[in-house]
Amino acid sequence: MPADSASHSPVEARATERRPWLPRWLSSEHPFPWLFPAAALMVVFGIYPLVYAITLSLYKRNAATRKMIFDPTHNWTKVLADERVWNAIYNTFVYTGVALFFQLTLGMLIALLLDSDRKGYGVLRAMMTLPLVIPPAVTGMMFLLMLNGSFGVLSRGLIALGIFPTGFSILGTANTAMAGVLTAEIWQWTPFMVLIMLAGLRSLPKEPFEAAAIDGATATQAFFKLTLPMMSKVIAIAVLIRGIDLFRAFDYVKVMTDSGPGTATETLTSYAGRIYFGSADFPYASTIALLTLIIVILASTTFMKIFKVKL
Amino acid sequence: METSRPLQILRDIAAVTVVGIFMFPIFWWALTSIKPISAVFDKDRVNFFDFVPTFINYGVTLFGQSRSQLAIDQGIGMGVGGAEAYDSRQSIMESIIISLGTTVITMTIAVFAAYAISRMMFKGRNSYLNWVLGQRFMPPIAILVPLVTIYKTAGLRDTDNLYMGYFGLMMIYALMNLPIAVLLMKSFLDDVPKDVDEAAMIDGATRFQTFRKIVLPMVKGGIAASAVLVFIFSWTEFLLSLFLTTEIRTVPVKIQTFVTSTGNEWGFIAALGTAAIIPSFIFILLVQKNLVRGLTLGSLKE
């Protein structure tokens, strides 16, 4: 219904008759009352704290007197010069990139494997969704136990295979800690990709594949020439949603290594959290958090432009 | 595509193996929860089934049994006491209240917004939609630091007033879940033809009556699916709960307190962890059909 004809419709007239004292924008014919509660929530608990965070980042906190002094460049120059910030940015990108690569590849392979109408595959597909609903903080604990150097089942397995020396602590060693944290991340969220890829595979039309089979194409050719291009939109959406979540990685890092050893697994979010709890330099913690937001916005809008994705 | 029989069997084996690998951590976790301490900390070998199952870990965390019982049963005297520190009944209640409250608040707000977005033409419709979606892009940490200060000033901290603490946490959870709820409900509402609304309104119903009596019953399934997802996301949330509340400890935060300076209480951790994932497992199986749509914010349908 075009907007301007709405006010002349008989429906409209009847509705205003019902409660003549009510202004039009408060009646249910007007979108305002429908949209207001959500908007109010987003302003009060979203926009206001965000504006507050931006203001906070413009102040300098004096550690001794706990006074806030207006100094708009202090935190932002500090961020750019802070080696730990660059380390955290690097770690965050490594975390996001490696996790995305494994989740995407494994997700696609497992989806292809489970995409069958044979008996029992439905159950297998349902089982694959279970990791998704475990609290990430609990998953972190799960892998902390399994990766324990002296009695963890995964560690013991890897040691038995001769990959690591006896008693080797994967999470306690700077070089391997990130891989340990990523194991938990990849385990929990590969099923997310599997589900989305399965949905994508199931929505593909059958005809092109039949035609390709008649033309003598191999399964591999069909996959790269037909399946992948036709699934590109699905893959792009999955990468976008997963990427945003990966970039704010916190739970696994906090639980499994607490950003350590040293700063080996420190991500942007966990660094901000560390400053918050450690030195109580709220303006600086806010600045790093805002930096995370800026990078997420830049990266996701660029991605959406390049791959022409729209959620 | 036709596949030969041996190849099919190979595929079956591969599929079962892969799913088995993914199920292993859950199995190991559940197994740990019924192991006595000595079997958990077995340094000589990986202990799979060579132990006498015990339910004391569940007794202590879920039923408030005394921890000294554990020491007596196993003939060890380490770390007796502090029983109530491991009694998690309070945390489970708090988690349930927070998750249910969040679900009700989020769904109420989201269904209204989604209806207007789906049904009405108005200026700024796209901007509004992008605003809601933009919320999904925001890392919670970005607003967390000021939020603590704001809550302190506004009296929304649980240390000042427990009820306000609940309210405060529910509202921020509602904000975090709003995008998925609104976009998912919009996608379900878009599936209902607009002719339905128009027919009802020609018969003299107001917008609100149309919504409540005609459209709402038609998207019951969608509401249930969205509500389940919101519930699960609130149930599993960790960061906000960790920063914003001290008295209220949701289950994911409570589990972290079992990591002590004298060692991790793996038995208790595993028991509470196992108990915490069972409700989610049941819920997720109920919404299997709409899961993909939910996880992609309504942009992909199965």
How many helices of chain B? The count is 16
Spatial extent as radius of gyration of chain A: 26 Å
Spatial gap, N to C terminus of chain A: 25 Å
Mean pLDDT score of chain B: 86
CATH architecture of the domain at 89-250 and 280-295 in chain B: Orthogonal Bundle
**Any guess at the CATH architecture of chain A?**
Orthogonal Bundle
Query: Roughly what fraction of the amino acids of chain A lie in strands?
Result: under 5%
- Poorly predicted runs of chain B: none
Segments of chain A where pLDDT lies below 50 for 5+ residues? 1-8
What structural class results from the helix and strand content of chain A?
mainly alpha
Quick one: how many beta strands of chain A? 2
Largest sheet of chain A, if any?
2 strands, antiparallel
Helix content of chain B: over 70%
What order do the SSEs of chain B take from the amino end to the carboxyl end, as H and E?
HHHHHHHHHHHHHHEEHH
Keywords for this entry:
heterodimer; A: 311 residues; mainly alpha; MetI-like fold; two-stranded antiparallel ribbon; 13 helices; 67% helix; globular; B: 302 residues; 1% strand
Molecular structure report:
The complex is a heterodimer of chains A (311) and B (302). In chain A, strand 1 (59-61) and strand 2 (68-70) form a beta hairpin. Chain A has helices at 10-18, 32-56, 74-81, 83-114, 121-128, 136-146, 153-160, 174-202, 207-214, 219-247, 251-256, 268-278, 282-306, and strands spanning 59-61, 68-70. In chain A, helix 3 crosses helix 13 (282-306), helix 4 runs antiparallel to helix 10 (219-247) and helix 8 crosses helix 10 (219-247). Chain A is globular. Chain A has one domain: MetI-like fold (Orthogonal Bundle). Mean pLDDT of chain A is 88; it is low at 1-8. A two-stranded antiparallel ribbon of chain A has the order 1-2. With 311 residues, chain A is mainly α. Chain A is built from 13 helices and two strands. Chain B is an all-alpha fold. Chain B has a domain at 89-250 and 280-295: MetI-like fold. Chain B has 16 helices and two strands. A two-stranded antiparallel sheet of chain B has the order 1-2. In chain B, a hairpin with a 2-residue loop joins strand 1 (259-260) and strand 2. The longest helix of chain B has 31 residues, at 89-119. The model of chain B has no long low-confidence stretch (mean pLDDT 86). Chains A and B meet through helix 1, helix 2, helix 4, helix 5 and helix 6 of A and helix 1, helix 6, helix 7, helix 8 and helix 9 of B.
